[in-house]
Amino acid sequence: MDIVLEVKNLTMNFGGIKALDRVCLEIRKNQIVALIGPNGAGKTTLFNCLTGIYTPSEGDIIVHMAQGKSRRINGMKINQITKLGLARTFQNIRLFGGMTVLENVMTGRHCRTHSGITGAIFRPKSTRDEEKAIVNDSYRILEYIGLTAYVNELARNLPYGAQRRLEIARALACDPQILLLDEPAAGMNSQETRELEQLIIRLWEEHHLSILLIEHDMKLVMNLAQNIFVLDYGEEIARGTPAEITSNPIVIEAYLGVQNDAQVN
Amino acid sequence: MKFVEEFKKSFFISLGLILLTFPIMVIQVNTIENVVVWRWRNLIFVGLGGFILSFFWLLFQKKKGDAIAQAPAGHSRLHRIMDEPRLYRPALIIIAFCALIFPFVFSHYQVNIMTTALIYVMLGLGLNIEVGLAGLLDLGYVAFYAVGAYSYALLNYHFGLGFWSALPVGACLAAFAGILVGFPVLRLRGDYLAIVTLAFAEIIRLVLENWNEFSFGPSGISNIPRPGFFGIKLTPEQSAIYMYFLLILMCIFTIFVIHRLQHSRIGRAWVALREDELACQAMGIDKTKAKLAAFALGATWAGMAGVLFAAKTTFINPASFTFLESAMILSIVVLGGMGSVVGVVIAALALILIPEYLRVFSDYRMLLFGAALIIMMVFRPQGILADRRKKYEFHKLQSGEGN
Predict the structure, then answer these.
(1) Which residues in chain B have Cβ-Cβ distances shorter than 8 Å to A170?
(2) What pLDDT is attached to residue A120?
(3) What is the ipTM of this complex?
(4) Pick from B162, B198, B207, B172: which is nearest to B304 by CA?
């Protein structure tokens, strides 16, 4: 299988603090990779480096695109990275609260559409067609995620679980190759988590997405991930399949805790 | 009894008010005759007044609470009218008819006031792009207005440029000024942006006031020609009517453009930028472009309004472009409802016309105006007409048709 995202010796310094220290990571095509570790291990920092919010101090982030081209994305702007095919959700939900659910997803289509100010004012046929396509595509995504009941609802009025799913819908609207999910199950009850699990599996099976997942819910991680990376204090302490990770003494020591606690989780 | 609670409450409120105001309302020391005058009558007035006011206030609050419990949020009466074509179409026709006959029914003075109000409608709608849609708090909007006005005045003075050629030039120069301010403030938002734009407006005003060779300083520029009407010489009255219709057309044009922008790809990008800057960028929206576009477009309208203003008054000087004007335009946007076109139009007309007609109260004019603003903000913090997002209807499940 071919690698779609490659992180080499990524280091991120904040002043004197090394949030990430020579982290390496690969994601293959159509693979679900999980990133786990205790709070403050640098998982979200890694996400922010990948999506251009932070510019890494050292190291390379390379995206291998479908046409066989490779791009080093360090220091690129956030919107450029999204256009290359990396879309993300946020740990603390960052929806456009004052916009409707549909508009949130329509905004996600922005990077795949083109009409500008003159198009908006004169509204030629190309713009009208594009606008129609945006609406239809967005609606289809909402159908897929199962949010059609809320189409015209303001995003901030949605129940919590629906907001989390809307974040995923919005990210999908960017037509990503790689989907980065930052704690998608945080705050969900077990029913919602199961639904989320089904959704991620469907995305993986039907859309052949590569998914990088940060999650604390170990059951979800173990069910979904084919490959797990464990971070602690900004360093990678282990990598491997779920079975390898659960039996790795270093991971148990640093994060999972003794066997009994892991079971409870 | 239904109102026992309110009755009791307001009784004690009036009692408290009597005690509080006793020293100033009842006791009066006559320093000439060295006697204390007890004005017991005032006691009754204060008590009764306080009681009646607080009683109705409490009743109103109670009623309001009930109403909120019943009505779904975000649907005001105006919204319901606007949703119903059978109601809003005749309303629009009536408004259009009134606008049409207005200059022929009312005096020259009234037409002039209305024209000024319409300039503010344009300014409000322009600023609405920046503040209401893109969420860029601009306290220096008047700078672009000044750029437009001085463009026409100076181009006319030096090169004899007419109104119709100055209008696009003024708009372009203002848009350029918008981009000029936009670049350095790209990283700023909220209060910081407000401060920088405020400073920019002051710089423009001070330059205009002090650079005598360029802008003729505080004495300003006079004899700016009114817009030509196919070369026909117009009397001042006719010209005022002409100006009025010109502004009506410009306002319709503005509303048309802004309405289209609002529900377009770029409009959504602006709203997304307002809602969450980081998430907006993560959706692939170029923050730089979106912000500059908002600044440039907002400024374009201020520029056009400036040209129209210069043509209307035929005289401009820096005193017309003070911070007070910026504050006024911003109040129009906030009062009308951020992002709402109809709300801003209503607010602009109200804010300009009310002080004009309150001239009867001369000294208390601004006082009443301020009180009206405060009351408005207490009861309707979302503005006269809150912005509502477009609703889409989907008939069939598979081929959803945007409506």
Answers:
(1) 283
(2) 87
(3) 0.90
(4) B172
